[in-house]
Amino acid sequence: MSKKTAALFLNGDPPNALAMQHAMQENPEFYICTDGAYHYINSLKINPNVVIGDMDSLSESPTNTEVIFIDDQNTTDFEKALQYLCDVGFEKVLVLGSTGGQHDHFLGNLNTAFKFREQLSIKFFDQSQYFFLADIKQKIDTKPGKVISLIPFPDAKGITLSGFQYSLNNESLSLVDKIGTRNIAVSETPSVHFESGALWIFVEY
User: Fold this and answer.
1) Which of 82, 103, 130 is the last residue of a domain?
2) Which terminus of the chain has fewer CB atoms gathered within 10 Å of its CB, N or C?
């Protein structure tokens, strides 16, 4: 059974056509944006079901959509949106507009997604890649020749790769030691298995 899926737009660089194409292939049934993303979402010909946030970035009043104002400066608008989606029963979130601008925002977005990893399946789409937190046993949808990076968060142990140009066999990665950037897929369904920790997987379109 397919998971109940929402597309969430954040106030980073507006998604390009490639990001939109890949995200929309996953058939979201609900569209939500933070208040900072509302300025560009209409150019994508999307009328969001919900605009959410503290409304500090909103330059125009949304029409024909629900506005949820949450005056909480201890959480980001991304956190507010993910918590809302949890509360109303969504299981999978496709995130667009999460990169660009200041890099601390991007790292903060990764940290926020990590905190919701038990409640939501979250996949990000930027201008050239999609990326997500891997399951312990993870198959990857890609094509031979595409670049795949494995980024531990902050570490992952017992990693074994199949279908990659550069193999790992029961090895560990760590942010303070060895990470797995710029590997190459040599099959259409390379796979990753690891024993413990957390691992971000970045896949070139």
Assistant:
1) 130
2) N
